[in-house]
Design brief:
This protein is of the alpha+beta class. The chain is 32% helix and 32% strand. It has helices at 46-54, 72-83, 98-105, 110-122, and strands at 2-10, 23-32, 35-44, 61-64, 69-71, 92-95, 128-129.
Length: 132
């Protein structure tokens, strides 16, 4: 599998009567067996705030050297497609339960994911090979 891009962002309200500003979106662009996919994970932002109480994750910032930052929201989608083969090829994943969010991230090697995310930005080909 090749990873071309992974990033995340906080949604903002498009209209005053929506609840978009309560959510984060994480996206990963990748290729498996010559076929390209983009998978988007939408989850409640509050879940990130609860992680220190429910997991060993104590900060949502995994890397920051002043010029480059890797946040949890940047690598959630990448974590899900690597950990769970059933998510590969899906366009959208919606997580609205804190227990599901915690379970999906349990056992994930975040140092490895940060390495992939940083590698994409540093690689001239803008892709990183991931063995799954």
């Amino acid at each position: 599998m090749f990873i071309y891009n992974c990033h995340g962002y906080e949604l903002v309200k498009a209209q005053s009567n929506t609840s978009e500003d309560f959510f984060n979106r994480s996206e990963v662009e990748y290729e498996i067996n010559g076929q390209k996919f983009v998978t988007s994970v939408l989850y409640v932002r509050f879940f990130e705030e609860q992680l220190p109480e429910m997991t060993e994750i104590k900060s949502t910032t995994f890397y920051d050297n002043g010029n480059e930052t890797v946040e949890l929201r940047d690598i959630v989608a990448l974590a899900l497609i690597i950990k769970n083969p059933a998510y590969r090829g899906r366009k959208r994943i919606y997580i609205n339960e804190i227990n599901q969010f915690v379970n999906e991230l349990e056992g994930v090697d975040f140092d490895q994911l940060v390495g992939y995310a940083r590698g994409i930005k540093q690689n001239a080909n803008n892709k990183v090979k991931v063995t799954i």
